[in-house]
Amino acid sequence: MFFDLDHTLWDYDVNTSEAILEVYAYFDMAKWSFFTFEQFVTVFHEVNNFLWDRFNHGKLDRLTLRNERFKMILTRLGVQAHEIPVGIGEKYLELAPIKAKVIPYTLEILEYLKPNYNIHIISNGFDDVQASKLLASKIHHYFDKIVTSDSSKFRKPQKEIFEHAMTLTGASLADAIMIGDNLDTDISGAQNARMDHIFFNPKKLVHHLKVTYEINSLQQIMNIL
Fold first, then answer.
1. Host domain of residue 104
2. How far, in Å, CA of 30 to CA of 39, rounded?
3. Are 218 and 139 in a shared domain?
4. Helical axes 62-76 vs 88-95, angle rounded to 10°
5. Model confidence over 25-52: pLDDT tens digits?
């Protein structure tokens, strides 16, 4: 069993929203009356998704993603470059990975699977950050191997990260399945590696990709495995 982490098990949207609320307060960003906290959250997710998409497709590196994220967010909101707080990116990275909220039924499905399956993570996230998320959410002990873009030097949807995970875990295609929420990285990547997959689609997004299985709740995995 290969799981994606962010948005599939670790509740990225809730946890990052909590973290950026703390960032907003820490840097007294209410002093900039020309945008609200709600606007800050909205622009954060827009910019963050854009940068992660570029990272996933090899168009920027980890350092650029981290250095540019809040510059882009605050500039878009109208903050002058010289007013952007020093250390804001570092403060966010200090806060976000220690948030503990998981997607509904995460614990139940991991408890259900663990006795009969070897469970692993395949993530485009970074070793240190993903390790912190797993520890904070108290699900680290369910996983045997954590495969990241750092450790493998590949990124989903490249088939090589899946092949690396298979080699590392000793799994075979006949016995392996990938579970993730992102059609572009998790599902297309699994297809590139010819691996069966479960598309986790809680928002019931309309798409035209032919998938092995599709679920709207993690609980539905029990109907498949």
1. 2-10+100-223
2. 12
3. yes
4. 110
5. 999 999 998 999 999 999 999 999 999 9
Q: What is the DSSP letter of 59?
A: S
Q: What are phi and psi of 222, to 5 degrees?
A: -65, -25
What's the length of the chain?
225
- Which is it for strands 2-3 and 120-123: parallel, antiparallel or unpaired? parallel
- 3-class DSSP assignment, residue 206: coil
Task: Check residue 168 and give its pLDDT.
Answer: 95
0.90 surpassed by pTM: yes
The band of 136, judged by pLDDT with boundaries at 50, 70 and 90, is: very high
> How many domains does the chain contain in total?
2
What span, in angstroms and rounded, lies between the C-alpha atoms of 86 and 88?
A: 6
Give the Cα separation of 21 and 41 in Å (integer). Answer: 8
If asked whether residues 107 and 172 sit together in one domain, one would say: yes
| Bridge partners, 198 (sequence order) | 179, 213
